[in-house]
Prior knowledge:
This protein is mainly alpha-helical and 90 residues long. It has helices at 22-40, 43-49, 54-73, and strands at 18-19, 75-76.
Amino acid sequence: MNAPSQPHGTPLPIGADYTLTEKDMDRLWRAQVAAQLLAALDHEGATHLGISHDGPAAVAEYIAEDVLDVLRNTQRQAAPHEEPPGEDLI
Length: 90
């Protein structure tokens, strides 16, 4: 008899504790692309395009909130091993 598998027949890697949905994975990819675009935008380019300081800051805040929302949506798949260091900093 075969062991139960994860969605789409993909087994979890050894040591995986959390899973996330395909929708949330797509959100992480979009956040990563947006962060790359922000990183590529230098002062001269932003000035030339008429982008104020508030624009990139608003995008960065949106990315941070979206990533935090994705993290909140993760599902624990294994029992916790021990308290992660720095948990009180969250």
